[in-house]
Design brief:
Helix content: 25-40%
Oligomer: single chain
Strand content: 15-25%
Structural class: alpha/beta
Length: 279
């Protein structure tokens, strides 16, 4: 009888090991969501995922440059450690000699989100839990995805949802003109934003973050801002994503934010500013 019990234990252990070993991180590259050559995205997911939240990581580049390669390994690791699928899209760019507008860039990202909403189950995702994130111009696009209410879908769009299922927004030095803030209404998604200090370019002063936080606070929407006076544009790579240089308080606050919006866990303090002292 004792030998039988030992054998059962061994078998169970092997089954657990086999299950863990069989789980893999998959990458589906250049998934097409629209007709333009830049309407493609990369999707990162774990084969064990089931009803996983989905994070969009949107590149910046003044709407003229950049690519989905912005979503580096540190970024992927942070989000996937929280059990999230990660999506990094390309979008049309305002190159010289083209008629592309910022509105076109925004619509492209909206179509990418619509595609993932319709196909989330393929990746083990929950189409009702999407977090919109981005840096600089990508921060603008991520905020539009989070707070814009009405979409004029193009005739050739395959998916035309009435609503984009955004549950949280993060901007890394996001460009936030007043019309973005004017989109915010009561019960909109919580927002987490981060800015550098005097070295931020004129288009993305930290004051935009303070103004956005004030807007969210007025609507009784949870918010958190991180300010790093000694750093410049898009400080998130150093302060949040890099395991070597990240700020502990910022990292813990961001994890609490993800727990809240992705899984409904906890009620972290909001409406405040984390003042990071970095050399």
């Amino acid at each position: 009888m004792k030998m039988f019990k030992v054998n059962i234990a061994v078998v169970v252990g092997l089954l657990i090991f086999t299950t863990k070993a069989s789980a893999e991180v998959e990458v589906d590259r250049d998934v097409r969501y629209g007709m333009h050559e830049r309407n493609v995205m990369d999707v990162y997911w774990d084969t064990e995922y089931k009803n996983a939240p989905i994070v969009f990581a949107i590149h910046g580049g003044a709407f003229k440059n950049g690519s989905k390669a912005y979503c580096n390994k540190d970024m992927q690791n942070l989000y996937m450690a929280k059990g999230c699928i990660v999506v990094s899209p390309n979008y049309r760019l305002k190159k010289q000699g083209t008629t592309i507008t910022v509105g076109d860039c925004t619509l492209d990202i909206a179509m990418a989100v619509a595609y993932i909403q319709a196909n989330a189950r393929k990746y083990g995702g929950d189409p009702s839990k999407i977090v919109s994130t981005g840096a600089s111009a990508g921060g603008y696009l991520s905020a539009q995805i989070a707070y814009k209410k009405n979409w004029d879908w193009p005739a050739d769009a395959k998916y035309k949802p009435k609503k984009l299922n955004i549950v949280g927004w993060f901007g890394n030095s996001p460009y936030l003109p007043r019309h973005v803030m004017n989109n915010v209404v009561v019960k909109d998604p919580p927002g987490f934003m981060m800015y550098g200090g005097k070295r931020e370019p004129p288009a993305t002063p930290a004051q935009q973050g303070h103004d956005m936080q004030s807007t969210l606070n007025q609507k009784k929407i949870w918010s958190k801002m991180v300010y790093i006076d000694t750093l410049g544009h898009v400080p998130g790579k150093r302060v949040l994503f890099s395991p070597v240089s990240r700020d502990k308080e910022t990292y813990e606050a961001f994890n609490q934010f993800l727990e809240m919006v992705c899984y409904g866990k906890g009620k972290p303090k909001g409406g405040d500013v984390i003042d990071v002292k970095k050399k």
